[in-house]
Fold each of these.
Amino acid sequence: MKEIDFLKDLVLKASKLITSDVVVKAKDDKGDLVTNFDYEIETFINGEIKKNYPNFDIVSEEFNTNEKLTDNCFTVDPIDGTINFAHGFPFYAIQVACVKNGETCAAVIYLPRFDELYWADETGCYLNDKKIHVNNFSPDKSLYVVEGRNNLPSLVRLDKIARHYRITYCSAINFAYIARGIFGGTIFRHENFWDYVPGQYLVKQAGGYIRDEDGCHIATNTKEFADLLYKYARSVQSDTVTATDINN
């Protein structure tokens, strides 16, 4: 079975585990949440990977958090946007990617509430079975998202050159919407492989531009927009925000 066929089937089966019986728990003391379905879905996905690809490593949010990408591995995010999911807000997704011989070769992002299956392989990027592409909007006309710490001062700075921002709190949707041509760009400032590896591959295969540098994972419709996001949003990184951060 080709990796993309395996991933598509895997994610759709995993989504059927979700019912109305949601149990929400605090994941830490900073307001992060986890649900029973984060654990159930990841357990199912990881088990299927181990059966079908026993020689591949797994990097996943709940059970393999400290693992690093290897030449042959899968990244697994059972529910991206858990806080949205826990509150009944439909912006959440299941996302998985396959890295083979050191390169991402297949990725899937599924939005259960919208029944939208975004997937990509060597042939391109698709929404369900229709090929999709990034848009050609200029930065000042594009919708964009900044995810990660201190996104507000970054958005204030970006307002000088690109005013149309949205907040989803779901990186998978941000990347999928760039690939689809809805958003023009996003910057993701965490080092969680499961959050950005699938989406960046979708954007790349949809004709977009990817930039990765030290805690700064960008995907855009053009190189111009990627450079602007990096310039105006990358530098605001610390937990302490100052007037200089906002005004520079």
Amino acid sequence: MTHEYKITGMTCGSCVARVKSELLKIGDVLAADIRLQSPQATISMSKHITTPVLQQAVSKAGHYTITEMGQGHEHPVSNDNTADRPSYFPIFLIFGFITGVTILVQVAKDSFSWMQWMTHFMSGFFFVFSFFKMMNLKGFAEGYSSYDVVAKRVRVWGYIYPFIELGLAIAFLMAIDLFVTNVVTLLVMGVSTAGVIQSLIKKTPFQCACLGTVIKLPLSKVTLFEDLLMVAMSAIMIFTML
């Protein structure tokens, strides 16, 4: 028999691997297909295994909760996948607010400066994104290490990265040596972009760690656009300063 389940708390490939490992240790589990998209688990078993038993197993993997699809607060699986489609509204809203506020700053002045607007935009971007990452630093570091080329090899990079973003936010806001600040931004965001591109090419399902673990977003072209935008802005400002 096969049942589908929802597992909350998984944010990356390593979460998936840990949960699958624990579930397969249950004697009557024949196979377990675990993924980040709903339904997160499709479990084949020789005889029915109660949800509390499955919960005990996933709890050994971490702070995860498993519920059977169609029971409790869950809705039965149907052919309508609308609810499973990722919502990018939070990230679009954040970009909209940052763009609007920084444009208003320029409108309040006598003349509109594109260079200054980009400087303020990047400051706002790094302030907001570092804030969300720091709300669960450990969760971010774990999720980021699943696809970032540096964090995969140097785990501490995931803990340092949000503070680098915060430092860049302050540097852009205070206009501290903008040439050096933009060079650092180009390097940091360029490396981050490389990791996103690799994961998208492999089509491996990962949760995007750009907003930490507070707002869950799948790694997608939206993530790539976000990184490339920062790379492009820093490159434009470096070119202008030469």
Amino acid sequence: MHMASGGKDLKPFQSPERLEAGDRIRPFALPDQDGDPVHPLSDHLAGKPLILVFERNETTPSFAAEVRGLSTILGDASINDVVVLAITRRSPADNKVLGDTEDLPYPLLSDSTAETYRAYGLETADASSSVTTFVLDTNLRLVALIDGGGASHGGEILNALETATADPTDVPLAGHPPVLVLPRVLSERDCADLIDYWHEPAPVWEAEGLNSRGFMEETGDFMVRNKDYGKVLQRVVRDVPLQKYLDTKLNRRVITEIRKAFQTKISRREEYRIAGYDAAEGGCLGPHRDNPTKETQHRRFTVSVALNGGAFEGGGLRFGEYSQQGYRVPTGTAIVWSCTLLHDVLPVTAGQRFILGTHLFGN
């Protein structure tokens, strides 16, 4: 069951009101209790897991206990280099009194205008909880949003930190193409719903080389069966509400990363496609580039989101000019690459491989 904040059931492809796992938070600069600005992207803080503890109700005395509880659970954990920042609506002077009186071990940041509260969906005080805790990975992506702190929800916070630091820090690489690998772009629920959506009835058109007449003949969703340079069945998504839902996810979680990593501003995309590679049909895609023709030369980046990582065998995404290693990533993880890179999808040897894909370009 997909639940929004407050316990409200969500239909497929409907977002909750608050930020959710995978969203990248908006950076901020707030003064600490000594009046010095603190910025999560500063060199001495960036690249580390980050915990933000927001005070939700100034009249609730357990805020200090929840903050101190973090010190206890982190001291007992094996996770190192975690940055913890507590944020209140109080002035820096009031935060200094609070920190000294309660002997709080972490910086207290002042958001007296509540601008950061509003940006993170915490506009109003929540009487049911003294704090809300954000657990973020090393790239300021939300791993978990928890109504509570270290004293009341220490186990949940530690579990989220383990997720945030799950990647190995030192692995041997035979070769590595210039690609982005972005976790938690889509939730597991989103991915399962997209696979269900792929299975819904739609007209099927055969591909004609790199094209299909379905793009001109159909006004709604349709399927394209590739069989010339690979074997894959793709659903072209024209459902407007679904497109808007996916745009919201990618704008928050992919487009901003492309701008940061490649200094490229993305303004448009092609139609989304949900692609299914079936081992029973020899599902694969031959080596190709995504912008080799006059009709496709506008493309800059390709995005491929794994919808069922680990549910099939074979099917690695390979960039043969750089390495013979095939990429297989967890469910919900996106791989982003330049459309000029040669790539192929190795044959699926068992099960079915599903991805959501699109091509991005600028003005």
Amino acid sequence: MIVVRRVLFALSAVLAVMLAACGSPPEPAGPSAAPAGGGTFPVTIPHKFGNTVIPEAPKRVVSLGYTDQDAILALGVVPVAIREFTGNQPSATWPWAQDELQGQQPKVLNGEISPETLAALDPDLIVAVSAGLTQAQYDLFSQIAPTISQPAQFVDYGTPWQDATRMIGTALGRAPAAETLITGLESRFAQVRAQYPVLAGRTVAGTRPSSNDNANFFVWGPQDLRGRFFESLGMPVPPVFADLAKDAFYASLSTEELGKLDTADAVVLITASAAERATFEALPGYAGLKSVREGRFFVFDDQLSAALSFSSVLSLPEALDRIPPEIAKSLGG
């Protein structure tokens, strides 16, 4: 609690004291069992900014990533705090994960999260796989508690659900449970691919209104989580959008280029509100898109859009139930 109090008084003082006095925390003499998790500690988690040692089974977990709570909850752990992402759901948790809260109400973290806010939660693990941390943020947060960031091999916000679930499961001492979740969901993807073979090889463009202005719109690339979902169904992102996104998970296009969406066999509009959907549908040229006229343009509601944006072990079953049959029907399957 000394660390917490000092952070709350002055972050600079805390960091000075920690760096000068604490150094690296001593490792336990031997591994300890993780309660109900079947794992042993300490464990080392490699990520974009190095390696994080978790000395013992975490008891106060902060879900700092925008979508990390789903994997944490699926593994039977209720975070002390969850970061708000979209939808303003109770406890920042969508219906597909509400039961996993076990009746608890974690604190909701909104906007930019300060080190003082994190320190006040007294965490023993900060999960930031989908937080898009910078090196500076990681350096600050890891002075408060062991912090795991995104894997080095993926773009920010582009970690596949399998890797995120496996990484978080290991950090929580619940790696076997994570593998069970992964195997079960991958089996479900295989079933859907077999059920809807018409999807194989058909391209899909994902789009949404620009968050900057009405003169542009966004399209995802193959490293985006929504792009990864469709790729898992055998539906790649059109090459033109993959080229535009390059090493990012999305690209921004002028509304004058709206017609490029018709390079895809299917187009999916992902939004966070009815107002955003109305904004996009009012763009010049929208009604004239071939995909709109032929019924191959799909506008998803808030919950289905969020399920795709989370692309988690808990949200993807809903996406698998609702999306493939609708698109397959429009493509003649």
